[in-house]
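Researcher: Here's the sequence for the chain we discussed earlier.
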Amino acid sequence: MIPSRGEIVLVNLNPTRHNEAGKIRPCVVLSVREAHEILGLVTVVPCTTNLLGEGLFRVALPPRERLKEPSEAMVEQIRAVSQNRIVETLGTVTSEEMHKIEEGVRALLGL
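Model: Thanks. This is the structure I predict for it:
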């Protein structure tokens, strides 16, 4: 499965180390499809239902399509994963949500 930027996909993030987000959880696809086809990797932002409140590194994602619970994208947990870790597609983020995620990534990387 080759996902598209902005899709919310269910990803198996195990095994993990230390403070990494683990489990099988929704993630927002940040990278572009062309990169996925070349690299076989997908850059994602994991989501959680452990809500801390929207801020620079958290973006609120209300339920939609197959994302059934209120969630937050955890920008501080950004990572590249193999396409083989993607289980299924759950939905798509809005352009406003993607913009907030991008702002968080820029802040995280000092760009």
